[in-house]
Structures are given as C-alpha cells and as structure tokens.
Amino acid sequence: MEQEQIIAAVRGFDGALVVLPEAGGDLPELVWGDAFFYYAPDGQMPRNTQPYGTIVTKNYPDDTASDLDPSGRWRVNIHIDRATFCELTEEEPRSLSRPRDHSAVDVVLPHPVYGALGWISVVNPGERTEELVVRLLRGAHDAARARSARRNEPGE
Hints:
Order of helices and strands: HEEEEHEEH
Strand order of the largest sheet: 1-2-3-4-6-5
Strand content: 15-25%
Structural class: alpha+beta
Distance between the termini: 47 Å
Largest sheet: 6 strands, antiparallel
C-alpha cells in the first residue's frame, strides 16, 4: 500500500481534512512531506484538536525507533480506542512493557512515543495490514466526528 492510497481513502471519509504541509508553506519545515488527518467538515485545520491519524516520512528528534530516514520508509499512525488497542497489541496502552522492534515493516505496533496515549503505528503498511489500517483510520475518523458533535452540542 502506498501513502497516496491511504490519503485517498481518508479523503473519501465524510468531513475529512487531509493536511499535506509543503516547502514554503505556513507549517514548520519539520512536517513538510508528512500528512495529517482531521475531522473538519468546514475544511479548516482545527486549532485546538490533534489529528486522529498521520503519515510521517522521516525520523523526528524524539522519535527515531522506526528508522524512517532511509529512502522509501514511512509510517502511518492512528489514534484508536482502548479496547481495539488492547486487542491489537495484547497490552494496555498505559502499561506497555513488552520489547518491540518498531522498525518492523507491515506490523501493527504501539506507537514508539505515543503508544501509552492509545496510538498505534505501522511502518510501510502492506498485505498484512493495509485493510486494517484503512478500517482503523475510518474508526478514528468516526470517533473524531463524534467528539466534534459532543463539543458542539448546544448547552441546556
């Protein structure tokens, strides 16, 4: 599965906003070339909301365990619910203790930095994980939509 296929799938979700920072844009150089997925039916990047999914194409200063700097390596990251996290990783998000090779390809793993917060990651999704990745992104999108609806409910 290619990054473009994941981006196209997310763009197909109702109310999805895909932010693709580019050189010379308003966003920091560090994020150029990456992708950020939001529920934003107005088409505006939310200011006080984290994305529910991302694609990163390089190591970040505090996030090098996936070894993303070599050409052709990238990682999709998805915020998922606790039950799904436990099912996929066989551990509680806040109690991660098993050693893992975060550079492994086409394997669902707790995010190397944000796993304790319920994030999973997959380096170079392929045959084993591509359908699951899209399904998890759909679930994360639906959860973001539900959070947005709750935030925007009129007060009683």
